[in-house]
Write a structure and sequence with these properties.
- The complex is a heterodimer.
- In chain A, 38% of the residues lie in helices and 19% in strands.
- By secondary structure, chain A is α+β, with helices and mostly antiparallel strands.
- Chain A has three domains: 293 residues, no CATH class; 113 residues, no CATH class; 57 residues, Arc Repressor Mutant, subunit A (Orthogonal Bundle).
- In chain A, the strands form three sheets. A nine-stranded mixed beta sheet of chain A has the order 2-5-6-9-1-10-11-12-13. Chain A has a three-stranded antiparallel beta sheet with strand order 4-3-14, with no helix packed on it.
- The longest helix of chain A is centred in the middle third of the chain and has 20 residues.
- Chain A starts with 7 loop residues before the first helix and ends with a helix.
- The mean pLDDT of chain A is 90.
- Chain B is of the alpha/beta class.
- Chain B has a single domain, classed as Amidase signature (AS) domain (Amidase signature (AS) enzymes, Alpha-Beta Complex).
- In chain B, helix 2 runs parallel beside helix 10.
- The radius of gyration of chain B is 22 Å and the shape is globular.
- Classes of the chains: A alpha+beta, B alpha/beta.
- Chains A and B meet through strand 8 of A and helix 4 and helix 5 of B.
């Protein structure tokens, strides 16, 4: 069943790859593209629907202005031109999860076009910048979801019946299409991965999407073709659909390059078709063939008026663009004086934004980073949620860092405060109060605990008096136990030694 | 006329749930309907909407009405709209194209008729059977025509060209309205035909819309009012008044004055004098 693959080095010695990437992004607007329905993820099926997004006769669409704003922001961040005037178009095809049997999209008049994104890839010669040119950024509405029941594969083929959930129908989608990307050579899979990663970071920094690949709010279709080295003839492309992780983008492209090359080597043609990538096996299989390409009969959407963004508004939006994430990272790395590896660990844990916020609230960068990358990321991981959803805010972390620096909390106590906040016991000061976690700094209380410790282990006390300072450890341990860990061990040591004449 | 104006003021205006509605105040159509004064108004008779192909009784009553308007003090001017002759073919490409897409939602999935769902047939088969059973011949004709006109390879020749014609027609209207306040013409070339009489000849049926279609393509406002009964069959003849977009009050001003004059001339409302319905060819 699986097709032959050519060794990757051989692929590169004989062929040159050309890429094309289409990324679909679900915007995080509160309401849908053409109606007022909510867009919450994971709601009961068919509870976020209305006559418009169900395509009932007589209903009319009306445009979500916020979605247009988000799309323009994306276009500006990708160095695109913004259309002075453009229209929506209908893409006609019949499918049960498409309520109107046409999708309102954009066709030959996208709202943003002619942009680029520079991405950095580590090559044999060090970091190298590849420019990915953007053909267009356009708006459309998402379809509903089909759930095929009773079959073995979950595919429509062999299913007994299908269920339809229209909650997703009408959610604003932005499609970002690159021009053909030549010249990436053996780095093609890495360039694609870096592009999607950089795009994801930009979209997140713009605040326009949740960009969760695993939930499908960012989906990538990868087009790959090979041409014999030096021939200048563009090969037939395949399109691998809905690749849903960064690692899969890289693996899918590598796998397609190897499959194409094996076919070409044995004199076969590459079929222009849609492919599906399988995470488990790392290979693609054939989907629907595009030989009988569907005719979508695009025409301008007559129920909507053209969009003509005011140039002054576009300039206002341009002025609000945040710093490019890659530029921001380089700057922070310098300011915080941290290594590549440490920056990478924050980016990979998805905590950079919250660390920045925590530092902005006055926390030391190293401390802020260590909480988010360490304890908090670990707890988020255990619960299977994103760090931002685990229940502790940058303000909480900044306050905890502050309490430690003022000596009100030890690191050990601070960990308990973090636990308490995540458990929903309140803000840090409330957790400190309710759990009674404040450091015992009252000398009188400490001295009485020290006296009790000396009395209960007089042998150790004698040794300390005799100059064996190592023996103090046992006594300090007793004091810490008596104060339930809420004493500052250094302070206890200081008082104890003084008490024993040292 | 006054009833229409009163209703107009209630239902007119911008609808935030309809992006194609104009966000501007509704003209004072009730006051215009009550005005009964058209002295000094310039009224254009569209040369292309009359003459050959028009029933003689229709032309007779229309021309009489033109004289009534002149008698009321309006200045009558003949204007030419040379692209109106292409309005019908353009319309019968654009409207069916939109129909073919608008009616796609009738697919048996979420509402309405469902035919052939025996739990063995695919969704696509059920869609096909339902649409085959549910749509009548005229609807199917338009869906097929529209699907064809929008198809890749034919779009430019049909739908695309029709939209260009639409622009030419809009230009004709703009030129005409630079000379006159309103345009008038017969509403249709003939009096009403019998139900089903032209069912086998769709082109003849479409031709009956020849005078009203230019307005629909251009987005102007228009009204039709009875202007007499045709001598040969006793059926009412319609007179169409056309004004630029957002100048609906001009329609009511001319319509109100003409209705009052004709009611007096005919000794009462014209529609009170039409013959009783006797059943059609069906």
């Amino acid at each position: 069943m699986s097709e032959p693959m050519l060794d990757y080095d051989d692929v590169i010695s004989k062929y040159e790859p050309t890429l094309g990437l289409e990324v679909h992004v679900e915007l995080n607007t509160h309401s849908k593209m053409f109606c007022g329905c909510a867009t919450l993820f994971g709601a009961e099926p068919n509870t976020q629907v209305c006559p418009v997004c169900l395509g009932m006769p007589g209903s009319l669409p009306f445009v979500n202005e916020r979605a247009i704003e988000s799309t323009i922001l994306i276009g500006l961040a990708l160095n695109c031109e913004i259309a002075k005037w453009c229209r929506f178009a209908r893409k006609n095809y019949f499918y049960p999860d498409m309520p109107k049997n046409f999708q309102i999209s954009q066709y030959d008049e996208p709202i943003c076009f002619n942009g680029y994104l520079d991405v950095e890839v580590e090559t044999d010669e060090g970091m190298r910048t590849f420019r990915v040119e953007i053909e267009r950024v356009h708006m459309e509405e998402d379809t509903g979801k089909s759930l095929h029941m009773g079959g073995a594969t979950g595919r429509i083929h062999g299913a007994d019946y299908s269920l339809l959930d229209y909650n997703r129908a009408g959610i604003p989608l932005v499609e970002i299409v690159t021009k053909m990307i030549p010249g990436t050579e053996k780095y093609a899979p890495l360039v694609a991965k870096a592009y999607v990663a950089e795009l994801r970071d930009i979209l997140r920094s713009l605040g326009v999407s949740d960009v969760k690949m695993e939930q499908g709010s960012l989906r990538c279709d990868a087009n790959v073709s090979l041409s014999p080295r030096g021939s200048g003839i563009l090969g037939t492309r395949s399109e691998t659909k809905n690749v849903n992780s960064l690692r899969s983008v890289e693996r899918a492209i590598r796998s397609e390059m190897q499959r194409h090359a094996a076919r070409l080597d044995s004199g076969l043609k590459v079929v222009q078709e849609t492919r599906h990538f399988h995470e488990d096996s790392g290979i693609t299989t054939s989907g629907r063939s595009k030989e009988t390409a569907e005719d979508y009969r695009y025409f301008p959407e007559p129920d909507l008026v053209p969009i003509a963004p005011d140039p002054a508004w576009v300039e206002e939006l341009r002025a609000t663009l945040p710093e490019r994430p890659s530029v921001l990272r380089a700057r922070l790395q310098k300011e915080w004086n941290i290594a590549d590896k440490e920056m990478a660990s924050m980016v990979n844990a998805g905590v950079l934004a919250v660390v920045i916020e925590t530092v902005a609230l006055g926390a030391d960068p190293a401390k802020a980073r260590s909480w988010w990358v360490g304890e908090i990321a670990r707890q988020a991981n255990e619960r299977g949620v994103e760090v931002i959803d685990v229940g502790i805010t940058p303000a909480d972390v900044a306050r905890i860092v502050e309490l430690v620096s003022t000596g009100d909390l030890t690191d050990k106590l601070a960990r308990q405060v973090v636990d308490g906040v995540i458990a929903g016991e309140g803000r840090p000061d409330e957790v400190v109060a309710s759990r009674g976690l404040k450091v015992v700094s009252d000398d009188g209380a400490l001295l009485s605990a020290i006296a009790t410790a000396i009395a209960s282990d007089s042998a150790a006390a004698e040794k300390v008096r005799g100059g064996n300072l190592n023996a103090a450890g046992a006594l300090i341990g007793l004091v810490m136990k008596a104060t339930q860990g809420q004493a500052d061990a250094a302070k206890v040591r200081e008082l104890l030694l003084k008490e024993l004449g040292q | 006329m006054l009833d229409a104006a009163l209703l107009h003021e209630v239902i007119g205006g911008h609808d935030i749930y309809d992006s194609t509605s104009i966000d501007a105040p509704v003209p004072g159509v009730v006051a215009a309907a009550k005005m009964r004064d058209i002295k000094g108004m310039r009224i254009g008779v569209v040369r292309e909407l009359g003459g050959e192909g028009y029933q003689s009784g229709v032309l007779q009553r229309f021309n009489e009405s033109v004289e009534v308007l002149r008698g009321l003090g309006a200045e009558i001017v003949e204007v030419s709209c040379p692209h109106f002759e292409y309005a019908l073919p353009a319309y019968y490409l654009i409207a069916p194209s939109e129909c073919s897409s608008n009616l796609a939602r009738f697919d048996a999935m979420r509402f309405g008729l469902r035919v052939g769902d025996d739990r063995a047939r695919s969704a696509e088969e059920v869609m096909n059977l339902t649409r085959e059973a549910g749509f009548g011949p005229e609807v199917k004709r338009r869906i097929i025509l529209g699907t064809y006109a929008l198809s890749s390879g034919y779009y430019d020749a049909y739908y695309g060209s029709a939209q260009k014609v639409r622009t030419l027609i809009i230009n004709d209207f703009n030129a005409a309205f630079s000379q006159v306040d309103v345009l008038i013409s017969p509403t249709s070339p003939t009096t009403a035909f019998k139900i089903g009489e032209k069912a086998d000849d769709p082109l003849a049926m479409y031709l009956n819309d020849i005078a009203t279609i230019p307005v629909n393509l251009a987005g102007n406002c228009a009204m039709s009012l009875p202007c007499g009964l045709a001598p040969e069959d006793g059926l009412p003849v319609g007179l169409q008044i056309i004004a630029p977009a957002m100048a609906d009050d001009r329609l009511y001003r001319v319509g109100g004055a003409l209705e009052a004059a004709l009611t007096e001339q005919w000794g009462g409302p014209i529609m009170g004098q039409v013959p009783a319905l006797v059943g059609g060819a069906r």
